[in-house]
Specification:
The protein is of the alpha+beta class. The chain has three helices and seven strands, in the order αααβββββββ. The radius of gyration is 36 Å and the shape is elongated.
């Protein structure tokens, strides 16, 4: 550092970050030239450089974070039911301020009660998600599960309307599952 402008001979002075980097690179280059040929020397100088080392540390941290995100949750011990599906059930849909659905299930298994649920557009995997729709899913063994695409409007809660508008009924004699739901009125 003695050849810097404005420094006294032998004084040394305070070296800035850039001067320290230049000196370190020069020392590494001289060391590399003494031990190996020029091409390998520039590679060695590069890999021992401060910026290269920080980039390696940054990449290692990013890779660790990515692998933690990719770890799949442990498989649950719940066994899936396997049964032969016999096709889609017959159904009839009536639209009012909501929907009334009647599903005819003549070959339903004994003791099985049909189920229904609402599914968001992002839960289903058949179509690209569309925030304008949600899905009504009806399932009963041994039939295929059927789904209806309905507008993504809020649905009246069954507990709020005292059972007048939202209801469901399974008739085991006629093997017909009927239910109705209403969309919440928007004020």
């Amino acid at each position: 550092y003695q050849n810097r402008v404005g420094s006294k001979f032998g004084g040394g002075g305070v070296a800035g970050a850039s001067e320290t980097n230049v000196d370190r690179r020069e020392r590494l280059r001289k060391l590399a030239l003494e031990t190996i040929d020029l091409a390998k020397g520039s590679y060695l100088a590069h890999t021992q450089g401060k910026k290269h080392q920080t980039n390696l540390a940054r990449r290692a941290a990013r890779d660790l974070k990515d692998t933690q995100l990719m770890i799949a949750p442990a498989a649950s011990n719940v066994q899936r039911k396997v049964f032969l599906k016999i096709g889609r059930p017959g159904y009839r849909v009536t639209k009012v301020q909501g929907m009334m659905v009647q599903v005819h299930l003549p070959q339903i298994k004994a003791g099985v009660i049909p189920r229904r649920r609402f599914m968001s557009a992002w839960e289903q995997k058949r179509e690209p998600p569309n925030k304008a729709y949600q899905y009504l899913i009806v399932a009963a063994e041994p039939y295929e599960t059927i789904a209806f695409r309905i507008p993504a409007r809020e649905i009246e809660d069954e507990s709020d309307d005292a059972g007048y508008w939202n209801w469901s009924h399974w008739d085991p004699d006629t093997k017909q599952y009927s239910f109705q739901f209403m969309f919440r009125l928007q004020y």
